[in-house]
Amino acid sequence: MNLDNDSEEIAELNLAESNSTESDDDIRKSRIKLSIFASIVSKIFGVFLPLVTLPLAAYHLGKSYDAFMVLVNLGGLFTAINLGIGPAVVYKIAKYATSKDEDKERMLLASSFVSAMSSSLIVASIVILIGCFAPIELIFGKSFTPFEYVLRPGVFFLAFIVIMYALQGTAVNMYTGYMEVHKIRFTMAAGYLLSAVLAPLVIITTKSMFWTFVVIMGIPAVLPLTLIYRLLKVDRPYLNQSWKWFSKPEALSIFKGNMLQSVSDFGLMASRQLPVVAIGFIGISTLGAGQAGTFIVWIQTIITVFYMVLGAITPAISHAFQSKDWKWIDTTNRKLWYGIALSGIVGIFLAMLLGPLLLNKLYTARFEVTSVDCLFLALALLSNIFMAWFAALCTSIGMFRQNSMGGIIQGIVALLVFYPASQFNGFITIGICIVCADSARAIYTYLHFLKRRNLEMHDLASPT
Questions:
Q1: Range with the largest mean pLDDT of 36-40, 117-121, 371-375
Q2: Are 61 and 203 in contact (CB under 8 A)?
Q3: Most buried by CB count within 10 Å: which residue of 70, 95, 154, 455?
């Protein structure tokens, strides 16, 4: 590890905060470029993981592949419950770092850690109780009862995953607020690479759905724990022993802000993980759930590029908002609009033309993919991208309540369209849920962002 580079990055951030030789805009641009480069590196390994492991799993696991995909999505359901970490921490650390208030940073770290661990332990306990006492047909549906011997141990492992994500999330969100996303991405890349190397060996040698799940979900969850050491011992030693600055009001404030984010995540869960699990209750076979779960992984794999770019831009928007730099925010918003629209048009055409050729070669052992399935994949991606960007605009300027309401609307729409959509195969079912739900949320959040933006611009233009 090159400590000099770490010191230079901290020094650059301090220069930005003190309005020295470089402007805030220059620092934001340099941070974004570095974060995007790190995101590309992480994305290469992140794409490699499902690209290699899922076709192998579909071939070697047989019918248990469907159970594997349902368990992966259930894991996403529990880890999406954001009780003590998240954008509330990012928003506040961006504010405290800008004002160079180290005591406030210590208080935020200690309070967010206590909040995260307390809530994650509660969630993990609930998961363990479900694994111990709930009949498997009540968790996954009657069609999955033949796979109880692997699904139940998987549920117990989910409790471990929940705690790991809470631990790593404390450091991840601090680094995000410091606009040092590249450190997160490089660590993630290492986790993806290690998992991609070990997973094929586990799949081929064991043909075990449970151990495949452990390797694919466990390694990326555990390796980022190294960020905690780096944060406290290398990059910001003044944060060490921050527990002394723990503040109960601050912890409750963080908990409240992230509960609002969890409410907004209800929309994502209702339009993604919940339909995958619900298909097991209404289907006579597990194939539909396997198709829907695979569709979700495709969406997450492809859209990771945008999310990583978004992760690099969002902290910069928070900093720009603190500086009242709406010109930079408007320019960034306009560029992303044009980029998303152009990419969407090209993406729909390429998906329908090339998607079936590629996906059928990879997954021929389990199911067949058509051009219509790929059309819904492209439309779902496009609506997801717009929704994610507009939601990020809201959370980056502290509009958690509006984003939460958007999540509620998204979830309600997904629940309303699920049953009619379930008459189709798993690919189209989940595609319809995502397109309808994400579009509804995108419209709601963007209208509220524009309303807040116009009010801020009016206040800036008004004489003081």
A1: 371-375
A2: yes
A3: 70
Determine contact, residues 311/39, Cβ cutoff 8 Å.
Answer: yes
The residue with tokens 């958007």 is 406
| Domain assignments of the chain as residue spans, ordered by start | 23-456
pLDDT at 358: 87
In terms of C-beta distances under 8 Å and separation of at least 24 residues, what long-range contacts does 449-457 make, across chains too? Answer: 449/390, 449/393, 449/394, 449/397, 449/399, 449/402, 452/397, 452/399, 452/402, 453/326, 453/329, 453/330, 456/324, 456/326, 457/326
Q: Encoding tokens for residue 73?
A: 């999505």
C-alpha distances (whole Å) from 4 to each of 7, 11, 21, 228 are 5, 10, 21, 19
Residues 210 and 154 sit within 8 Å (Cβ to Cβ)? yes
User: Are the C-beta atoms of 309 and 343 separated by less than 8 Å?
Assistant: no
**Which residues, 6 or more positions from 341, have their beta carbon under 8 angstroms from its beta carbon?**
none
Return d(Cα 73, Cα 51) in angstroms, integer: 17
Question: What does the pLDDT look like over 7-48, one tens digit per residue?
Answer: 323 223 332 333 333 455 555 566 666 766 776 777 777 777
Q: Which two tokens stand for residue 285?
A: 């076979």
Pick from 110-124, 245-259, 386-400, 416-430 the range whose average pLDDT is largest: 416-430
- Report d(CA 173, CA 175) in Å as an integer: 5
DSSP per-residue codes, 125-149: HHHHHHHHHS-HHHHH-GGGGGGHH
What span, in angstroms and rounded, lies between the C-alpha atoms of 88 and 343? 31
**Which residues are CB-neighbours of 105 under 8 A, at least 6 positions away?**
93, 96, 97, 236, 238, 239, 242
Say if CB 64 and CB 72 are below 8 A apart.
no
Each residue's pLDDT tens digit, 310-361: 766 777 887 788 788 888 888 888 888 888 889 889 989 999 999 999 888 8
Tell me the three state secondary structure of residue 392: helix
* Structure token digits, residue 291: 């198709």
CA-only gyration radius of the chain, Å? 22
